[in-house]
Design brief:
Length: about 120
């Protein structure tokens, strides 16, 4: 059974940085593309970024490009989301997701999800 656990969320001020982690178990981590999504109150879950299974390709939403980076450590079965220059509009629950082989921007293509971690950015 695939299990994804996010951690690292919290309350920060605008301009601060935060690093989220996603620990995976129950899967061959190196064979899975990983994605980050977020959901703000009253809004749909939206794509933040993804990383390929070997970590050699990433893609980001335009709203976070240049501020967020994604990395992964396949030896530790863990993915990271480094968030810099945080803005109040980044406030949301952040979710990691996994899908075999090929990354995707669509949340509908991911079949394994974590429970989410809250990120709140105050102005």
């Amino acid at each position: 059974q695939v299990r994804l656990i996010e951690s690292g969320g919290g309350l920060v001020q605008a301009g601060d940085s935060l690093r989220l982690s996603c620990a995976a178990s129950g899967l061959t981590f190196s064979a899975y593309a990983m994605g980050w999504f977020r959901q703000a109150p009253g809004k749909e879950r939206e794509f933040v970024g993804y990383i390929s299974k070997r970590g050699d390709s990433q893609l980001f939403a335009s709203s976070v490009k240049g501020r967020f980076t994604i990395s992964r450590d396949n030896a530790k079965n863990t993915m990271y989301l480094q968030m810099n220059s945080l803005k109040p509009e980044d406030t949301a629950v952040y979710y990691c997701a996994a899908r075999p082989l090929i990354p995707s921007m669509s949340r509908h293509d991911y079949n394994s999800w974590g429970q989410g971690t809250q990120v709140t950015v105050s102005s």
